[in-house]
Amino acid sequence: MADEKLPTQAENFAEWYNQLVLKAELADYSPVRGCMVVRPYGWTLWENIQQALDKRFKDTGHVNAAFPMLIPMSFLEKEKEHVEGFAPELAVVTIGGGQKLEEPLVVRPTSETIIGYMYSKWIKSYRDLPVLINQWANVMRWELRTKLFLRTAEFYWQEGHTAHATEQEAREETLRMLDVYEDFAVNEAAVPVIKGIKSETEKFAGAVMSTTIEAMMGDTKALQSGTSHFLGQNFAKAFEIEFLDQNNTMQHAWTTSWGLSTRFIGAIIMTHGDDQGLILPPRLAPIQAVIVPIFRNDSEKAVVMPVVDRVFKELKAVGIRLKVDDREGITPGFKYNDWEMRGVPLRIEIGPKDVEKNSVALARRDVPGRDGKSFVSQDNLSGTVCEMLATIQKALLERAIAFRDSHIHDPRDYAELTQVVQNGWAFSWWCEAKACEAKVKEDTKASTRCIPINGQPDGAGNCIVCGQPAKRKVYFAKSY
Fold it and tell me: For position 75, which CATH number holds?
């Protein structure tokens, strides 16, 4: 498959993405429409994302648990706004064991309701709070228009659910977890994100306030990459999560929920990838370096392979995730293209001349062609490779920031805004009226992405749509 060229991003970004996911063996279509099979390469990438996040969750005092996949329909109906928001996407089980069920069961679209029910059993006193639980799970939302990783009927994620004694604590938790997502996105995935608050129209069904990290993809569309919600007391009241406070008075808890899913794999693909294929950030890449031995005959092989084995052991010993491509009957050029398409950050070439000179050739995936190639000594190679991987990680982030910032505009008027959002984001004053938000969407297909928490200008301005006074600026962009 690697020898079939991908469409270029400029020709057809959507088709470039679809073909790349399949060719790089990240995922495949399943026989159930809208669902995906995550292949080992894609799952290893997800496992690396999981580990990076899980450590951060545990460092902030959260613990993991598991809740049922099937939720009684009556649970969803307890929170009116929540059920209305999810009703079109529900998958419902009505028969079990050959018998019609007394009550339909929903395959979880998210777990606020079932977890709210359990919290009502567990939380009785202020001493039981806060409860800080996360679960790693799959969920089902019956999407009509699907795209591998970005929007599938079934997907994998983590969902954190916390309960607190005070509103202030819950609000602090909401923003703390948003900071955790930002830290992960920037430092592990090299995906620069903007933290902000969702509009009333765009917020999570049942939330008081939704916050988000928004990333710009290689086609300038926005991708909502993780969300953290302040739920107020909405679910606590619906599920009677009550506790005796220090004054011996019954109070409702304050709750939050937050999640990041396999959609983030789509963010990595579309932030860093190029016409040759994937470019994976070293900190998350399933394979950080691939060693390609080069020889033409058995005598050269006898010279090269002992060095390849020694280099492999040295790099493995310092924790580098690597592979030796010793496939026979395939040219080195084919192997180079194959691993470039799979986004391996660093290629190490070892041939007879390299053995003779006590050197290896290093080829960076993020810098194509000769510019990305260097010859280095085999002495302290593990140190050189670790340094190179860190350089690649930093370069990917800097490149993504530069691309994003060059495609964010501050249009002078509404006419300019309608032009800007065709190939970029607009950062504009907005009066926060739903009518203005709806007009932009109708005229341009761009939506409000977030009201940024940081970087708001001082003072006030006038809404780009209606001219009325506005207190805050918002990002308008087309999105996935």
Answer: 3.30.930.10
299 & 424 share domain = no
pLDDT for 3 equals 55
User: Does pLDDT of 52 surpass 60?
Assistant: yes
- Residue 211, classified by CB atoms within 10 Å of its CB into exposed (0-12), middle (13-18) or buried (19+), is buried
341: how many CB neighbours lie within 10 A of its CB?
23
Return the number of other C-beta atoms located less than 10 Å from residue 55's C-beta. Answer: 11
Question: Residue 1 — very low, low, confident or very high, per pLDDT cuts 50/70/90?
Answer: very low
Check: CB of residue 349 under 8 Å from CB of residue 331.
Answer: no
Domain that holds residue 384: 289-403
CA distance 126 to 256: 17
22: helix, coil or strand?
helix
CA distance 112 to 343: 37
The kind and range of the H/E element at 432 are none
Contact, 70 vs 106, CB < 8 A? yes
Residues 297, 234 share a domain: no
CB 206 within 8 A of CB 259: no
Q: Do 399 and 414 lie in a common domain?
A: no
Helix (H, G, I), strand (E, B) or coil at 238: helix
Name 406's Cβ contacts closer than 8 Å, sequence gap at least 6: none
Tell me the Ramachandran region of residue 149: left when phi exceeds 0, alpha when psi lies from -120 to 50, beta otherwise: left
Given 403, 434, 452, which residue is the final one in a domain?
A: 403
The mean pLDDT value of the chain amounts to 96
For 324-338, letters b (16+ CB in 10 Å) and e give bbeeeeeeeeebbbb
Structural domain count, the chain: 3
Q: What are phi and psi of 217, to 5 degrees?
A: -85, 175
Residue pair 132/62 in contact (Cβ under 8 Å)? The answer is yes
Q: What are phi and psi of 406, to 5 degrees?
A: -75, -10
Average of per-residue pLDDT across 79-91: 82
Weakest-pLDDT range from 1-15, 66-80, 153-167, 272-286: 1-15
Q: Are 170 and 162 in contact (CB under 8 A)?
A: yes
* Rg for the chain, CA atoms, rounded: 25
d(CA 64, CA 55): 11
**pLDDT (mean) for 131-160:** 95
Averaged pLDDT, 334-347? 97
DSSP annotation of 420 reads: H
Pair (165, 66) in one structural domain: yes
Asked whether residue 227 carries a pLDDT value surpassing 70, the answer given is yes
**Residues 464, 470, 475, 476, CA torsion sign:** negative
Nearest to 277 by CA among 343, 336, 365, 370: 343
Treating both helix axes as pointing N-terminal to C-terminal, what angle do 40-59 and 167-187 enclose, rounded to 10 degrees? 140
